[in-house]
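Thread amino acids onto this structure.
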């Protein structure tokens, strides 16, 4: 399982990464909030560990941002700030648990295990590219903090492109998967019109590319 650890103290970060790695977790460390946000746009983790005081802002604000975009993403604060008002603020902004430094690594491991037993691995139900995210369980599409309402065919088109992010999806494949498989045989222009409506609703994302005479591609964000 993947864990994102937002921590600017390299010594603590490496200690936690090494310890959790021995117990089957793949830990990615981010020394700034901005780097963590960029990682989220490419891939969702199984769980997030957040320090409070970061060079480019408050971990509390990052927690709120995560909760806004991925409501059931497991989040644990791992911070030296252990006063009651800080813990109340952390939980109020969406944290699931709160561990105060210094801490015993085995206790952190137990907290992670307990939280994941309650939530499971939610990372697989989220797909995203740039500011666009899709929750497959709720069939919900967001552009930043704005919910986007799509028709069934628009939703299926976006889902197919996100599932194949970084790959060209041919027009034939899209027509077959979205319409023909339901017995709704349509002409090629239907796909063009649906794509035009989808692009408009998603605020014309630059990473949704047309590959002339072939199909479309949701490009990976570098």
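Threaded sequence (222 positions):
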């Amino acid at each position: 399982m993947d864990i994102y650890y937002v921590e600017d103290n390299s010594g603590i970060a490496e200690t936690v990464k090494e310890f959790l790695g021995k117990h089957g977790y793949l830990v990615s460390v981010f020394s700034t909030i901005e780097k963590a946000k960029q990682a989220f746009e490419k891939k969702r983790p199984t769980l997030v560990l957040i320090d409070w005081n970061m060079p480019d802002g408050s971990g509390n604000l990052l927690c709120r941002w995560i909760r806004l975009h991925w409501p059931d993403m497991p989040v644990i604060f791992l911070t030296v700030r252990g006063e009651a008002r800080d813990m109340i603020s952390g939980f109020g902004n969406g944290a699931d648990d709160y561990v105060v430094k210094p801490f015993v690594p085995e206790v952190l491991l137990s907290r992670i295990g307990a939280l994941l037993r309650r939530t499971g691995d939610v990372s697989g139900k989220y797909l995203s590219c740039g500011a666009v995210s899709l929750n497959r369980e709720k069939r919900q599409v967001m552009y930043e903090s704005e919910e986007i309402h799509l028709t069934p065919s628009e939703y299926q088109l976006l889902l197919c492109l996100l599932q194949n992010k970084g790959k060209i999806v041919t027009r034939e494949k899209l027509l077959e998967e979205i319409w023909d498989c339901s017995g709704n045989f349509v002409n090629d222009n239907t796909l063009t019109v649906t794509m035009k409506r989808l692009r408009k609703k998603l605020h014309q994302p630059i990473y949704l590319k047309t590959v002339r005479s072939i199909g479309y591609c949701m490009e990976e964000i570098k």
